[in-house]
TrEMBL record:
It comes from Candidatus Ignatzschineria merdigallinarum. This is Zinc chelation protein SecC. Pfam families: YchJ_M-like. InterPro entries: NTF2-like_dom_sf, YchJ-like_M. Residues 1-90 form the YchJ-like middle NTF2-like domain.
């Protein structure tokens, strides 16, 4: 999770695509204009692999968009592909605020 947050902050779209599960991965990630400034990540909870092979990370992320602060809490789901955990999808646990 931390590596994906860093990749968003650094606009490392190649890493984001590579760490996304092939069944839900978009063909490309478009650059934000102007880009969000990712400023904070707090891991709230981790859940290790369950019987279906899923792992979960609940986190809070904070960002700036056009000079305004925003944040959200998400529960991300990861699953192994080619022996590596890959991001499958996520669910907002609160509405993003700006």
């Amino acid at each position: 999770m931390r590596s994906r947050f860093s990749a968003f902050a650094l606009e490392n779209f190649e890493y984001l695509i590579a760490s996304w599960h092939s069944t839900t991965r978009p063909p490309e990630i478009l650059k934000e204009d102007p880009p969000l400034q990712w400023i904070y990540l707090k891991i709230i909870k981790t859940e290790v692999e369950n019987e279906r092979g899923e792992s979960f990370v609940t986190f809070e992320a904070r960002y700036r968009e056009n000079g305004k602060a925003g944040k959200f809490i998400e529960k991300s789901r990861f699953i192994k592909e080619d022996g590596l955990l890959k991001y499958l999808d996520g669910e907002f646990l609160d509405a993003p605020s700006a």
